Amino acid sequence: MASDVHRNFVLRDENGEETSVYSGKIPRQAALKAARRLDPAESESQASRTQFRLREKGTEKLHICEGWAWRDEAPPDKPDWMPETITEANVSKEGVEHLDEL
Q1: Predicted pLDDT of residue 5
Q2: What span, in angstroms and rounded, lies between the C-alpha atoms of 84 and 57?
Q3: What's the pLDDT at 15?
Q4: How far apart are CA 52 and CA 63, in angstroms?
Q5: What is the pLDDT of residues 62-97, one digit of tens each?
Q6: What is the rounded distance in angstroms from the CA atom of residue 19 to the CA atom of residue 76?
Q7: Within a domain: residue 93?
Q8: Cβ atoms of residues 12 and 53 within 8 Å
Q9: Is the distance from CB of 20 to CB of 11 less than 8 angstroms?
Q10: Is residue 1 part of a domain?
Q11: 101 pLDDT band (50/70/90 cuts)?
Q12: Is 48 inside a domain boundary?
């Protein structure tokens, strides 16, 4: 697959219901976008880790990730429209499963 092609990943809950769609060239980009939607902690060390699953649209691949989010100060060279505090996130890939139902 070409590296400049964006792929779509659907957030999937425990019941198999699919809600939000995130895009990225690689699964990590989509996972970081999903992690930024988590409830942020005051610092990275205080952030609780949450497991979530992203299904790559058009495939049977289910990417399992652990993500966490925290509040941080915006960089000093931030644009005018950016708020003083921003949400940072990080993810750790736990593995890939293949679904039988698709």
Answers
A1: 87
A2: 35
A3: 86
A4: 8
A5: 999 999 999 999 999 999 999 999 999 999 999 999
A6: 35
A7: yes
A8: yes
A9: yes
A10: no
A11: low
A12: yes
**Among positive and negative, which fits the CA dihedral 43, 66, 33, 31?**
positive
Please tell me the distance from the alpha carbon of residue 67 to that of residue 64, in angstroms, as a whole number. 10
Owning domain of residue 57:
7-98
Task: Give the C-alpha separation, 11 to 56, whole Å.
Answer: 9
Tokens of 1: 């697959």
Instruction: Tell me how many domains the chain contains.
Output: 1
- The one-letter code for the residue type at 47 is A
Contact 67, 31 (CB under 8 A): yes
pLDDT in tens, 9-25: 999 988 888 999 999 99
Residue type, 98: H
Residue 45 has which token pair? 């060390």
pTM: 0.86
